[in-house]
Write a structure and sequence with these properties.
Strand order of the largest sheet: 2-1-3-4-5
Distance between the termini: 38 Å
CATH architecture of the largest domain: 2-Layer Sandwich
Shape: elongated
Number of domains: 3
Radius of gyration: 35 Å
CATH class of the largest domain: Alpha Beta
Largest sheet: 5 strands, parallel
CATH superfamily of the largest domain: Histidine kinase-like ATPase, C-terminal domain
Helix content: 40-55%
Number of strands: 12
Oligomer: single chain
């Protein structure tokens, strides 16, 4: 296989010999006559293999090896040192500096070609190993998150079921209690009309219980309890919609219903401790037909992205609190859905938080990459979201962001292109 090889030697004759021998094997050969020039070419062109002389001006072979191996982006390049030194101590020094192999001078053509072939085989194996490790990390992250979300889904479904029974019982009986209490209050009022002059004992009792206040407040208490049980029933419904354990297969669903269930689950993060909303939610929902997908998994995507948007807004608020001179902005999350002409659903989740730099943006979908403090994130959320959107629904997940302006996550979902079967 043709490779890109950098030959480094301050002797023009050696350069010519190396170039001819390597090109005869079909390799692309780059040349440098000192260590500094070699380092610049390596950083710019990233050759597969380098053959360099031990003794060179400006930067010798040992220092060149050290600098290349110290750079994570260059460390996998195979390095062969050209030397006339045969002592074991010299070879040890070369290996400690980062050399992978040695070639004695004067150069023996067949030995050079054999060592280059061997070095390139090792390079190829290293690349395959790196790719395998990357795939294993992705698989591991998928398994960890899948198991985590499966357990979470089961727990949510169990909690929802356990809450639902007593809440339904209470909610169903509140209307009866309301009727009974009203009947009793009406009866008390009749007694007051029939017996306008109660005995002193009864009058004391009426005063003790504060009958007028009780008559006015009791219906209010019941109304408040009714609202509370309705809220609990909504929570149970949202938990069920989010977990959707009964909907593991692909099926047509209302995308907006999934977004609403995710928003409901993060409501506690959208309000202050006093219960006042501090994050403004703007919904611009388009007309969408039922979309065929894996509902539970897509709901995870919405939840991950909305939680990340809230994190960005919290960090932005902390920055504005520290720097009073910064303009105060209303924390906002905007959710827009549209149906494209090419039958593609677009879901855009936009925040005006702290934003993401270009260097971070290129890595946000990498497994285990996170910018959050230790203990606040494992770097799996967006990686899993990306896999769900791309690999399991045949869509796209894009990030558009600018520091200090905000972030827009764009989910593109094509109709009937789910890839997991």
């Amino acid at each position: 296989t043709m490779a890109k090889i950098l030959a480094v030697d301050d002797d023009i004759t050696v350069q010519i010999i190396l170039q001819e021998l390597l090109e005869s094997e079909g390799h692309e050969v780059l040349l440098a006559d000192d260590g500094e020039a070699a380092l610049r070419q390596t950083q710019k062109l990233k050759p597969d293999l380098i053959i360099c002389d031990w003794m060179m001006p400006k930067l010798d072979g040992l220092e060149l090896c050290r600098r290349i191996k110290a750079d994570p982006q260059l460390a996998t390049i195979f390095l062969i040192l050209l030397t006339i030194r045969e002592q074991v101590a010299d070879r040890v020094q070369g290996l400690d500096s980062g050399a992978d192999d040695f070639l004695s001078k004067p150069i023996e053509p067949s030995e050079l070609q054999a060592r280059v072939r061997s070095g390139l085989r090792l390079c190829q194996l290293n690349k395959q190993l790196s790719q395998t490790l990357h795939e294993l990390k992705q698989t591991q992250s998928q398994l960890v998150q899948s198991e985590k979300m499966s357990s979470l889904g089961q727990m949510i479904a169990g909690i929802a079921h356990e809450i639902n029974n007593p809440v339904t019982f209470i909610h169903g009986n509140l209307s009866h209690i309301e009727d009974y209490s009203q009947d009793l209050l009406d009866l008390v009022e009749c007694y007051q009309q029939e017996y306008p002059h109660p005995s002193p004992h009864l009058q004391n009792k009426i005063t003790d219980v504060n009958l007028d206040f009780l008559s006015q407040d009791f219906p209010k208490v019941l109304a408040s309890m009714k609202i509370g049980t309705e809220r609990l029933r909504e929570l149970v419904l949202s938990l069920r919609k989010f977990s959707r354990l009964d909907e593991a297969e692909r099926k047509p669903v209302d995308i907006h219903e999934g977004i609403e269930s995710a928003l409901f689950l993060v409501q506690h993060r959208l309000s202050t401790s006093a219960g006042q909303p501090w994050i403004q939610i703007i919904k611009e929902y388009g007309e969408l037909p039922p979309f065929e997908c894996y509902p539970g998994q897509l709901n995870q995507v919405f939840l991950h992205i909305i939680n990340n948007a809230i994190d960005a807004l919290e960090r932005n608020q902390e920055k504005e609190t520290v720097n009073d001179y910064l303009p105060q902005t209303i924390p906002t999350i905007k959710i827009k859905t549209t149906l494209q002409k090419n039958y593609q659903v677009l879901v855009r989740i936009i925040d005006n938080g702290i934003g993401i730099s270009d260097s971070v943006k290129t890595r946000i979908f990498d497994p285990f990459f996170t910018t959050k403090p230790v203990g606040q994130g494992r770097g799996l959320g967006l990686s899993i979201a990306h896999q769900i959107v791309v690999k399991q629904h045949g869509g796209e997940l894009e990030c558009v962001s600018q520091p200090n302006i905000g972030t827009e996550m764009i989910i593109k979902l094509p109709f009937k292109k789910c890839l997991l079967t």
